[in-house]
Design a protein that fits this description.
By secondary structure, the chain is an alpha/beta fold. The chain contains 9 helices and 8 strands. The two termini are 28 Å apart.
Length: 184
């Protein structure tokens, strides 16, 4: 992939300004940037104010905010992780951020709950005390996986916001995503 242009970053003033009414009653916010520059640490902190809990998709965290061929690295401001309730990532993002998918490596980011998605091999929810395997839901026939990770994160977050435990939220998300990616 190639990045043709880098958009404007969300600023703390955006959170308290034009986005304030949409965030007013939000208990949870899913943050899903495309590039590292989309949501700086100060903006993440502003989003977490007023008790909001954040789920951040690591996709945008590992991708450099530069034009040209898409590039990734681990040179991430650690302050981004301080305000998160949940961090989601796939195996490539875990490799870029912490050099692997081992639960201890994922815990080293300091986020209370990290969800590692592994495509057809399911996911793993890593918390302080355990790593919970989340089996993939079976999909028959051809699939179109476009948006599967984003959809998983959104459905997982919705289930967690209702009080579901990580394993239950993951199983629910896997089932919904299986339906979404199945081609008729």
């Amino acid at each position: 992939m190639t990045v043709d242009a880098v958009g404007d970053a969300w600023a703390p003033a955006d959170v308290g300004g034009w986005a304030a009414s949409a965030l007013a009653d939000a208990e949870w916010v899913q943050v899903a940037g495309l590039l590292r520059t989309d949501f700086p640490a100060e903006t993440i902190a502003a989003l977490a104010r007023e008790g909001r809990r954040l789920l951040l998709d690591a996709q945008g965290v590992v991708r450099l905010g530069t034009t040209g061929p898409l590039a990734e690295d681990a040179n991430v401001d650690p302050a981004i992780f301080r305000e998160l309730a949940i961090l989601t990532m796939n195996e490539l993002e875990a490799q870029a951020l912490v050099g692997g998918t081992d639960p201890d490596r994922l815990r080293s980011l300091g986020v209370a709950e990290v969800v590692l998605t592994r495509a057809s091999r399911g996911a793993v929810a890593v918390t302080d005390g355990q790593a919970t395997e989340i089996p993939a839901a079976r999909v028959e026939g051809a699939v179109d996986p476009t948006g599967a990770g984003d959809s998983f994160a959104l459905v997982y977050l919705e289930a967690r916001s209702r009080g579901a435990e990580p394993a239950e939220a993951g199983a629910y998300a896997a089932g919904v995503v299986a339906e979404l990616i199945a081609r008729p």
